Amino acid sequence: MSPSPWRLAARTERMNPSVIREILKLTELPGIISLAGGLPSPDTFPVEAMRAATTRVLRDHPREALQYAASEGYPPLREWVAAEVGSRGVAVDAAQVLITTGSQQGLDLVGKALIDRGSRVAVESPTYLGALQAFTPYEPELVAIACDDEGPLPAALAAEGQGARFLYVLPNFQNPSGRSIGAARRAAIAASARDVGLPIVEDNPYGDLWYDAEPAAPIASLWREGTIYLGSFSKVLAPGLRLGYVVAPAEVMPKLLQAKQASDLHTPSLNQRMVHEVVKDGFLREHVPTIRKRYKAQRDAMQAALAAHLPQSGPRACRWQVPGGGMFFWLELPEDVDAEALLPRAVERGVAFVPGAPFFAGAAKKNTLRLSFVTVAPEAIERGVRALAAALETTR
Ligand SMILES: Cc1ncc(COP(=O)(O)O)c(C=O)c1O
Fold first, then answer.
1. Does the beta carbon of 127 lie inside 6 Å of ligand 1?
2. 392 C-alpha to ligand 1 centroid (Å)
3. Exposure of 205 by Cβ count < 10 A (0-12 exposed, 13-18 middle, 19+ buried)?
4. Ligand 1 centroid to 40 CA: how many Å?
């Protein structure tokens, strides 16, 4: 056999298959109740509205919808995003909005524009695995900031965040932990970051999915020129559209734009026009509450099942917070239980989850796991949690 002509770049050493995708293969086995997924429920996709919008776009603007377009994005959609984030207290001009191919691309562009080899990047503990995957190829030194049930501790931020290129933070219903940062903590984080000159990258794909109370205003509203804000249509319309956005201060926007040009020239014109056609007259004001209602019932079913089946006191106690929104519960098992070792036992009993360790940039808490409640009916959630409790019993 002749030697391979391919020589991979050194950075590929740092790229790893998503542990979650590997786990999902296991969980797609028939008969398994998967609480492992990270996908929205397809029952929430507004198929009819999309179909009608697509028909209108292709009828009225076929040539533009199928042509190359500006890298910044479709101007009316940028205007819509500027007004949308403006209504959350983040006053911006449409010139500060870059439409991206999912907010995942926004994370990659941020990494490309801001991270050098060895740059310190501060992240929450735990944090979104997809962000770790996006940043890692740019070879940062990831700094895991100490967190409590309300996110990063401002004092830890001041101590450890100094000199970092940015703090990556998810203030609303975090993936994976489900936790949210309250208004006072947001203010303290913004103040502390501003003090030490630490810019913030605020990722908010779940903010609209609140079930108890609307979240506090974005950190971007507290420190506009020091924050890059990312949003997404994936959780309020459909993720297959691959449509998100970055709102960035004027001094970084040109470099994000050039990074985007190199990456994919622009986000598909047809998708941008379709989505603008759907959202322009206030469709989300009607649609999002239907998603909230559905997911809230599933959230409540999971809370009830966890409370019924898992010990909450004594030596085998499990700990969790009820998420005020989003898609996930985060469980802390007894210290001596490794969630990865627990997974095959759970699968044997018919339920799957995602072990928590891969979500940590620093020292991993192996006794943690993530449960998604949005794609499983309440009755199956109950059975799934019961099976999880039975698997946990075997660790005694
Ligand atoms: C925290 C977080 N950020 C970004 C993304 C990527 O979303 P998008 O579909 O907009 O690329 C996800 C997807 O699950 C997410 O959970």
1. no
2. 30
3. buried
4. 11
Ligand 1 pocket, residue 46 CB under 6 Å: no
Residue 58, both tokens = 């292709």
| Amino acid code (one letter) for 77 | L
Please state the atom number of ligand 1 nearest to the C-alpha of residue 244: 10
Cα–Cα distances (Å) from 322 to 252, 299, 331, in that order, read: 37, 8, 10
Give tens-digit pLDDT for 29-45: 788 999 998 899 999 99
pTM, two decimals, is: 0.96
Ranges of beta strands (E only) in 107-178 are: 120-123, 141-144, 147-148, 151-152, 166-169
Residues in the chain: 396
Does any ligand 1 atom lie closer than 6 A to the CB of residue 108?
no
CA of 263 to the centre of ligand 1 (A): 18
State which ligand 1 atom lies nearest to the alpha carbon of 174: 1
Query: And the tokens for 130?
Result: 């997809």
Q: Going by C-beta distance under 8 Å and a sequence separation of 6 or more, which residues neighbour residue 176? A: 126, 128, 129, 328, 330, 354, 356, 359, 370
10 Å CB burial of residue 34 (0-12, 13-18, 19+) is buried
The response to whether residue 27 sits with its C-beta less than 6 Å from ligand 1 reads: no
11 pLDDT more than 90: no
For ligand 1, what atom is nearest to the CA of residue 234? 9
CA–CA separation, 17 vs 343, rounded Å?
A: 18
pLDDT in the model for residue 3: 87
